[in-house]
Design brief:
By secondary structure, this protein is α+β, with helices and mostly antiparallel strands. It is built from three helices and 13 strands. The protein has helices at about 25-95, 105-115, 130-135, and strands at about 5-10, 20-25, 100, 150-155, 165-170, 175, 180-190, 195-200, 205-215, 220-225, 230, 240-250, 250-255. Strands 3, 4, 5, 6, 7, 8, 9, 10, 11, 12 and 13 form an eleven-stranded antiparallel beta sheet that branches. Strands 1-2 form a two-stranded antiparallel ribbon. Strand 12 and strand 13 (about 250-255) form a beta hairpin. It is rod-shaped. About 25% of the residues are buried. The model is unreliable at about 100-115 (pLDDT under 50).
Amino acid sequence: MSRKYLTLMIIPHEEGGVRSIRVPYSALKAAAAAVLLAGVAAVLFFLAYGRLALTAAEAGRLEAENERLRAVKGKVDELAQNLEASERAYRQIREMAGIHSASPRDSAAARAHAGPGGTLAAPRPLDEEERQLLARSINTVPRLWPLTKKGFVTEEFSGAAGHKGLDIAVESNTPVLAAADGIVTAAGNDSIYGNYVLVQHDVSTQTLYAHNALSFVADGDLVHQGDIIAQSGSTGRSTAPHLHFEVRKNGVEVDPRSYLKK
């Protein structure tokens, strides 16, 4: 069988003779097959590389997500530990401060005896037993500075129509002290005053401790002058840590300076 050839003619631009090259068809087929195979191999390589790149990117994303979840879990564990520590500190502070219920009855019975808890707008009135208890106290006048630190007063009392108490700037978590013996008639949270404690000292005198980070007493608790009843903070409508301290006489705010020791 005779072989078939393809003749390629090369004509130079410059002067010179025309050259011709004979290439067998079989060689051309082999070259075409080689080019085709190389192209297919290149395509397969890039497809495989692309899949590997996507897999690596997905693995990286999953690892980043796992790392984020581990960080979130760590924060949750830390919050749980802090909460447990705060609860222990709460119990220890109450024990050290000698804070206890106004009567020896258990807490649930005491709350039932006292009736519905008071609020800042409507404090719970004292019952007869609580009145007799306070009548026997000798420290019902709120003369004690209501913090373990002096701090500094950022706003003074300016009348019932103006600023209703003293704003005393101190660091967060400074212990707040009961200014006199009394019974808690309201303790809770208010949109303006934040965490607050209201203490009744006699039939006409009350003190208010507001913007607390934590309150350590509840409605019905008996407190003594100097007991730790809260920790200062910046809850409610507040821009910096401080204690808002009020003295109320017959339901009307009066200047705390007239009561506090000089």
